Structure prediction request, 867 residues.
Amino acid sequence: MFDFADLVEQIDKTNKTNLKVEALEKFFSSASDEDKVWAIALFSSKRPKRSVKTSDLRVYAAEIAEIPLWLFEESYHIVGDLAETIALLVPESKQSIEPPTLTQLIGEIKDLKKLDEVKQKAYLTNRWSHLNYYSKFVFNKLITGGFRIGVSQKLMTKSIANVTGIDQDTIAYQIMGDWDPEETTYNQLILSPSKEDFIYKPYPFYLANPLDQDLRKLGSCSEWVYENKWDGIRAQLIKRNNEIMIWSRGEELISKQFPELIEMGKFLSNGTVIDGEILPFKNGKIGSFNDLQKRLGRKNVGKTTLENNPVILKAYDLLESNDLDIRNLKYIDRRKPLKKLVLFLNNEKLQLSEYYIFNNWNDVEEAHSQSRINKSEGLMIKNINAFYKVGRKKGDWWKWKVDPLTIDAVLTYAMRGHGRRANLFTDYTFALWKTNDNGDRELVTFAKAYSGLTDKEFKKVDSFIKKNTLERFGPVRSVQPKLVFEIAFEGIANSSRHKSGVAVRFPRILRWRQDKTIKDANSINDLKSLIHE
Amino acid sequence: MKKPLLVFNQNGIYCPIAKIYMDAWRPVDKVIISHAHADHSKNGHKHYLTHPNSVPIVKHRLGNINIESKEWGEKFTINGVQFSLHPAGHIIGSSQVRVEYKGDVWVYSGDYKRENDGISTPFEPVKCNTFITECTFGLPAFNWEKQEIVINEINDFWEECKSNHQTAVIFAYSLGKAQRLIANLNLDIGKIYTHGAVENLNEVIRSYKNLPKTYRVTRETKKEDLIGNLVIAPPSTHGSSWLKKMVPYVTSSSSGWMTFRGARRRRAIDRGFVLSDHVDWKDLIQTIKDTEAKNIVCTHGYKNIFSKYLNENGYNSFIENTPFEEEEITGNNV
Prediction:
């Protein structure tokens, strides 16, 4: 018997990709079909609905572990993962009982919602006390949701491909979209899917690699075309069987958030799939990502929001035309029908992402340097002969971003990280100088950043934080303002929601400025001077 | 209130009446050393006192120093203050320090663990009024398995590597953990090879304590010699060119921090074994009960959390800062 908990344990016990694939293959060739379907769902970030409040879960776990709740919370901040904390704190079972299957556990967890608190607690106590460490960990993960355990979707599709003999790209396509693990079977999903199942699926997105070499090594300049790299939401607009849907690159159905694009889609013919970028577009100009955020995270978009924050779809590829999957046509051969389609539709909500042709590399560099003026993040470099591939494949699509904007800021707050950074202070808040009404300079928070330092640097900063803590607020510590970091970010915009009055996009640490003291750090005004309309 | 018998000052843990320090972190005249780990036995003191099992190691590390030794339980008096050393079970020679003056008894634990590891003399609880305890692993998330179980896991791991024609590499602190592994692993599986830093200490320890045979990895060692065998190396060799010549190898680490999945992943090692030379949560609490102390001073580790817990449970507890091992994983004291 090699069940899902065994799989998680095996994956956890190695740092080597081939051993992870081996464990996945073992699972996909021996588990029950229903467990396989659930495993695919979990590794593709489809999780069962949460049926117990995590606050309740903490209370139950603390009681069973016979520790005060505050001690449970402290432990959680240090362990950095709720499922793991509970698995460590509730006493280990010495009895061995037949472990429940993945599907059985998920079924039980789903039914928990209907139980009252007393019965919920009784159920959890019983399960916790009869599971070994890894089963307990998996069980808790199923309850708390989120299953990031070092298995990428790519690793999973590879393993299924090895076991079934089905092409990996085909599997990647089959598991796209909004399927429900309770409604489908392994046979239907993987082994012999029916044609109808694909009607509601987007195609797997083709992703570019960052340009990691000298431009001139790409060969002849004329074998490539150049597009702006737009900073919006990558999405596929699909029309099939008179239904229109929009899928984001994160595989979320976002049709409801963009009703005007659905409206526009009505004019398309059936069997059309456009790949493009949803961009904020007010007064005939491309806005900042900040504007787009107002459209996200809402169930339905009201009239005012629609009027104040209009969007367009910048189309850069055509994947399906007249019911035909045309991903295997060359880039330029896909672009011709795309251009025709956009011209024919003549709808202000659908615009073509134009491509440029250059005859020498200097012109490419010149275009790259103009990116910010074009409201783009850089250039996309696409081979004119490239097919539309599956996932991130190197060679034919490159993204060449402009250098980020940077500013020197002071570390003021820190929090412990999660996952591989558990128990290390790696999540930082940064501040910039501002002159207040009394004419004094004070530090004002402007951004949070989690990445950009090496493990060694994180260790040093972690040690600094522990020795220079001013105050503790639960998991957060205020820190003696002493360290200066250069913070990089992609975009910048005015924002009334932020204390600093400015919102920055993708902030991260570029380097630790050990040569600077906090007096040398930049001010909010310096930051604002980077905004250009 | 009575004046405290021991105080924490900028130099170390100090007995003002006897004018002697314990594990001083800055150079002082007289110091009692709890154990031979570098952060507890610093260079530059004028006079050292420690257990005989620590003497050769401290001398090996610090050279020709002025050092005397006292057996466990042997009482000695300085300016009316009575001192004695008692086994702490952390590493070979590690001692608690008992200090008594006019009926007031303090014990400084140094680093300690409760399980008999087969190489350090096992911990003995000492009754006292005030107990100065480490709490490196003072969180209920830490619960050690019995050594036998963990050693079996490591043996299994070694066998598995052997059957795959790989070298099993285990990272362990050169002093303490390394010898604990050597003394307990199953040598029927194969040979134990050691990094020079480990073997140098093995040689010192062999002068007064039996240790199974180990083999030093040298320039002449071929990677074919290593396959199927086990290599013990300090954590700092992870990712070094020294290690790379051992391919194909599988890496592992043995420490209390291996409890956390995140800590294992951060180190980019294949396997983590939870084997610690410090007390876990349940043993911390048991030890405090056993000492019958009412006053508990918490030093390095999760001292804030543990001290709060003790205060809620009827003890008079407070924290003191030391430069030993800040709170976490950052140091090499495993």
In short: Chain A touches chain B through 36 residues (CB under 8 Å).
